[in-house]
Amino acid sequence: MARMTMREAISKALWEEMERDERVFIMGEEVGVWGGAYAVTKGFYDRFGEKRVRDTPIAEAAIVGGAIGAAMTGARPIAELMTINFAFVAMDHIVNEAAKLHYMFAGQFKLSLVIRAVSGGGRQLAATHSQTPDAIFAHFPGLKVVSPGTPADAKGLLKSAIRSDDPVLFIENATLYQTKGEVPEDEDYLEPLGKSKVQREGDDVTIVAYSKMVPAALEAAKRLADEGIEAEVVDLRSLRPLDMDPVIASFKRTNRAVIAEEGWRSYGVGSEVSARIYELAFDYVDAPVKRVAQAEVPLPYNARLEQLALPQTEDIYHAVKEVING
Amino acid sequence: MEKQDFLDLYREMVVIRRIEERAAELYQKGKIGGFLHLYIGQEAVCAGIGSVRQPQDRIITAYRDHGWAISTGIDPKVVMAELLGKVDGCSGGKGGSMHMADVEKNFWGGHAIVGAHIPIAAGLALGDVYQGNDDAVTICMFGDGATNIGFFHEGLNLSKVWNLPVLWVTENNQYGMGTAVDRASAVSEIRQKAEGYGMRNERIDGMDVMQVRADVERVLDSIRKEGGPYLLEIMTYRYRGHSMGDPERYREKEEVKKWEAEDPIGIFRKYLIDEGIATEQVLDEQDAEAEKIVAEAVDFAEASPEPGDDALFEHIYAEPAPVEYRGYALEKKSEGK
User: Fold this and answer.
1) Where exactly are the structural domains of chain A?
2) Do A102 and B318 touch (CB under 8 A)?
3) I need a surface site. Which of A260, B3, B13, B287 has the fewest CB within 10 A?
């Protein structure tokens, strides 16, 4: 184990997989000479050269489309989108090509492809650069959508994504890059794709979260524990496939749940998870499931207004109190 | 080319023509669903390119792909089975008319979103360069209409910036659906668009298969020797509508007739006779053979089974993954078990 930031954990995963497998290469805007817009690929260009760390034009359809084509030939590209907000420019290639080609041609094409993208608000980038549209991408069968909440998971999940034969959208939250945690140093440390994980045990209430809401939920759980409420925090880690087993197991003990996501509430992750709780564990429901999410506005530039719109630890804390007190 | 090669090429063009004619009939009978885009009139392009590309050259095209499927070597039976959505189709009945492919034949589809396969084609060539397949060229076809969409420009630019071995082929059949080239494109010669990317380019005749062969062979050689992309604008014409639901209000019957007089099969037939390569009788025999191949293809496709329920859930992912929801009927069915 080594203590490191999520940025370092992601960088380490990329580096180790590049060292391990010649077929792996990176392409994206400013990934090479610049060292990555978020410095994740700093030093990669010097070590691996321009063949394997490819600076692209600012052209997302060419980045994702090109990576898809290269993956079809047996290479294992990692396409980096500077932010998930630019994924809309490559939407066709993500949802109409990457998610479909294996199925539509009866398994003839394999897409060992990772698309990395930074999601989330809170950095005063205003409405177009601050979105958390993760759920949109999780809507499409054929795509795997992964988003870690801890540095260890970031490393283990990204390594699994790179080794996977399926297209994986790997969503990173920029405001988590500086968070620190213990990360296994084993070069074959892998976390399975499509498996939720209990990040904290507790018997009184289930908090379901992913990505940035995981540390927020853990923080809320700490405060609740001071008041004698033990919250179980289940980290989804993967939005598709979505693993409900640990959520349902927990809910059957706690009978109460709060679901926290950074994105908008309507048609979101919380909507899906709460619907499944009602479908799979209706007899265990003691209180209506609560959803904590972003206010349904385009995010403003002003820092105070932006924070007002984003879900906070405080919101999760209060939502839990409500499902417990009724 | 040996005499037999000429005959094979001729027969292939006739098979493509007949497949399309039968497909139109089967569509009208309701046996083929969805969209159906016929290649009739453009046969010299796929037959010409298909006969000069090397086995390592990848072929990728848009949705008017039946001719390409046959020219890359997919059995007409398998093509017809795909059109009928049957299990023996090249995409197991899950792709249909617009999504044919056979990786073994180096045919990478059949893509239905206009222009979206253009960056993917650049990626195929990137894959070859990356893995050291130095001799391979990716040959990517698209219609004139696709050159007005952003994908085209992103793909061409990337191919030139990275010097990728791609032969870009605009099959200029003069209409993007029902809109004539000069009503949709800022330049009426599509090849001019390559100029903006500093890319070698040329406009050639696409009705004479021998000419297509000669030009494409020369250009492929040049890509192999000098590297980098090249754009060919191949002038052709589709005799039928854009798809089966086309009212054809955008062109006069006389225009179609004029082009039918330049029929690629007729031109090639005349060439073979004039050059003393084949007699009328020999070519008639090839016509009869083509009819037989197509009739057998239809019989095969009709007899091929429908995909089973389980096929619905196959190939969503390459690796094992749970199916999130099987649909109401199948969920009920499995609950009953």
Assistant:
1) 2-183, 197-325
2) yes
3) B3
